[in-house]
Amino acid sequence: ALPPPSHLRAEDPAVRKIFVGGIPLDVPDADLREYFSRFGYVRDASVSRFSTGRSRGFGLVEFDNARDVEEVMRQYKNHYLAGQWVEVKKFDSRKSRDRRGGPYDGGVGKRPLPSDGGRAEEGSRWSSWGDDGGGDPHKRRR
User: Fold this and answer.
1) pTM for the full predicted model
2) DSSP states of the chain as a string?
3) What does the pLDDT look like over 82-104, one tens digit per residue?
4) Which of these, 48, 65, 91, 99, could form a disulfide with 17 (CB 3.0-4.6 Å)?
């Protein structure tokens, strides 16, 4: 038998993962795992959460092999969690490593701050704005 194509080799964890978007905010990890286990053995399933614990509305599922991912993708239009359709995509590890920040993803925190935390730049940039010489930049000029 021929070995599977290089993009389907089981030793590459990225080909065993899917991205799941549009997950209802009240869906726990266990429900994500339970739903996708009908397609094969699920090694890991997790809903991404903010530091507050609130769901970010997407998650990752890792299967035991790439064939299970292919089956999930064949049924692209048929995935519903808690009554809501969810979008599934093959996981692309390059995208997760290469976050450059654009106009629609917040763009905050993409550039390291200088050692002073940006305070020197902030002082020079805003030093003349809103200050009437009295030292309180929050007072209105008259």
Assistant:
1) 0.60
2) -PPPPGGG-TT-GGGGEEEEE---TT--HHHHHHHHGGGS-EEEEEEEE-TTS-EEEEEEEEESSHHHHHHHHHTGGG-EETTEE-EEEE--HHHHH-----TTS--TT-SPPPTTTTHHHHHHHHTTTT--SSS-TTSPP-
3) 999 999 999 887 665 545 544 44
4) 91
